[in-house]
């Protein structure tokens, strides 16, 4: 059958609508970004046609001469970017990267320490609804009640008590720098492997706006689509001694054929992230987050841990309005073209489907060129919506103002 000559308008029209949505609203989801046209060209290329099970020069199928070069470039670039010994660029996602590391370095039932989900950890750090929590014996550490920072004393006590095979650091909703040095010391004290999950902050690390965990951790996993601004996918960098086990765990242990079109997109993103301009970008993400946090604080919102040092912040809505839930706030803001997600705050009395908080990130708005003055505007737009989530006229007015602001910073 020849290819259809008519476009599939069911889908093309929806894609057009999504372009419109991304162009005309404020994208404040902390794990999202706008990837470059060069990355999208690679992901939309004929590389999607190729089966390449295995690794460069060790493939199960023929015809991989070109693909081998692409995957080698991706591996070399990411090792240079982070100063790592070895890389596996095949994980289809951040979750698969973590699972691959567990499969490589742990046995079922081994004890692992991870940050608890309701203090900002990720599902793959031992949640009972995730395979990590079902196959391994995860013990959760958390934040201090006083300043809502990582509780390193508790982490050390738990490590001494449980003698874990691995300690997982990293978070999905934590607004502070995670210093890898003291965690390495705890790992050394109890003989644990150190996995640093840098999914959210890989771009900040690449741009020099967050300490690099690679010199400290045995393995660092990350996603390529968050602050790193590449295609949707995962990556693992490790010390040389773990590379063979990790490669075997990703393929054939966990995945089949690699997504070489996405790997080509990763290679493009790694080169973009190695430029001095990307360092400026990473610093501006952090400056924008700080400016937005300040402006929200001035408007009566409490920020978990009192502020931010990275690309995201967590709002505890209760000081602004005791009755306002994260769920209702998210929905009202969505109606105004401000996209973000509800999030639990530490020891949240409400369920994860309702929550008392919001998570906000600045990677996307920074990519489109917004700076500190626009962050103050965003705080004001959010406050107008959240002051009365039932005021549909005001929400419509904010929607117009959001559209006007975004039109000055076109994305696609
Ligand atoms: C986003 C994230 C992941 C998972 O990434 P996916 O690509 O969504 O599977 C893993 N760990 C952390 C800390 C994350 O923030």
What does the model show?
- This protein folds into two domains: 40-273, Type I PLP-dependent aspartate aminotransferase-like (Major domain) (Aspartate Aminotransferase, domain 2, 3-Layer(aba) Sandwich), CATH 3.40.640.10; 276-407, Aspartate Aminotransferase, domain 1 (Alpha-Beta Complex).
- With 412 residues, it is an alpha/beta fold.
- Strand 7 (166-169), helix 7 and strand 8 (193-197) form a beta-alpha-beta unit.
- It has 15 helices and 15 strands.
- Strands 4-10-9-8-7-5-6 form a seven-stranded mixed sheet, sandwiched between helices. Strands 11-12-15-14 form a four-stranded antiparallel sheet.
- The mean pLDDT is 97.
- Helix content is 45%, strand content 13%.
- Helix 2 runs antiparallel to helix 10 (260-273), helix 11 (276-298) packs parallel to helix 14 and helix 14 runs antiparallel to helix 15 (392-407).
- Bound molecules: pyridoxal-5'-phosphate.
- Pyridoxal-5'-phosphate binds next to helix 4.
Radius of gyration: 22 Å
End-to-end separation? 34 Å
Largest sheet: 7 strands, mixed
Quaternary state reads single chain
CATH topology of the largest domain: Aspartate Aminotransferase, domain 2
Strands, total number: 15
| Uncertain stretches of 5 or more adjacent residues | none
> Strand sequence of the main sheet, in spatial order?
4-10-9-8-7-5-6
CATH homologous superfamily heading of the largest domain: Type I PLP-dependent aspartate aminotransferase-like (Major domain)
CATH class of the largest domain: Alpha Beta
Helix/strand-derived class? Answer: alpha/beta
Question: In percent terms, what proportion of residues is strand?
Answer: 5-15%
What is the CATH architecture descriptor of the largest domain? 3-Layer(aba) Sandwich
| Number of separate helices | 15
């Amino acid at each position: 059958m020849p290819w259809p000559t008519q476009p599939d308008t069911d889908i093309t029209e929806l894609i057009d609508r999504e372009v419109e949505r991304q162009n005309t609203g404020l994208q404040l989801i902390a794990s999202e970004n706008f990837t470059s046209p060069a990355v999208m060209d690679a992901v939309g290329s004929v590389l999607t046609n190729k089966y390449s099970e295995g690794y460069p020069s060790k493939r199960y199928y023929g015809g991989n001469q070109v693909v081998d070069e692409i995957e080698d470039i991706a591996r070399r670039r990411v090792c240079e970017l982070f100063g790592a010994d070895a890389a596996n660029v095949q994980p289809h996602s951040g979750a698969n990267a973590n699972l691959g590391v567990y499969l490589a370095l742990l046995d079922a039932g081994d004890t692992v320490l991870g940050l608890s989900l309701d203090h900002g950890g990720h599902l793959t750090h031992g949640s009972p609804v995730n395979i990590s929590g079902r196959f391994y014996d995860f013990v959760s550490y958390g934040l201090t009640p006083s300043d809502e920072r990582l509780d390193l004393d508790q982490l050390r006590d738990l490590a001494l008590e449980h003698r874990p095979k691995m300690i997982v650091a990293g978070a999905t909703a934590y607004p502070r720098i995670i210093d890898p040095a003291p965690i390495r010391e705890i790992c050394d004290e109890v003989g644990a492997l150190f996995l640093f999950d840098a999914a959210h902050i890989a771009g900040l690390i690449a741009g020099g706006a967050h300490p690099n965990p690679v010199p400290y951790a045995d393995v660092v996993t990350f996603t390529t689509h968050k602050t790193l601004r590449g295609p949707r996918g995962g990556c693992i960098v490790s010390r040389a001694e773990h590379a063979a086990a990790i490669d075997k765990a990703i393929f054939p242990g966990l995945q089949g054929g690699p997504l070489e079109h996405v790997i080509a997109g990763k290679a493009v993103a790694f080169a973009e992230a190695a430029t001095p301009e990307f360092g400026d970008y990473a610093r501006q993400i952090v400056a924008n987050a700080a400016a937005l946090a300040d402006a929200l604080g001035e408007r009566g919102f409490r920020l978990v841990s009192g502020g931010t040092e990275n690309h995201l912040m967590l709002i505890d809505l209760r000081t602004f309005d005791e009755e306002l839930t994260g769920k209702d706030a998210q929905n009202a803001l969505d109606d105004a073209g401000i996209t973000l997600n509800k999030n639990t705050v530490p020891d949240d009395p409400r369920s994860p489907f309702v929550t008392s908080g919001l998570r906000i990130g600045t990677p996307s708005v920074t990519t489109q060129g917004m700076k500190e003055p626009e962050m103050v505007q965003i705080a004001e737009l959010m406050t107008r919506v959240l002051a009365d989530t039932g005021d549909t006229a005001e929400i419509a007015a904010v929607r117009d103002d959001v559209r006007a602001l975004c039109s000055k910073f076109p994305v696609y």
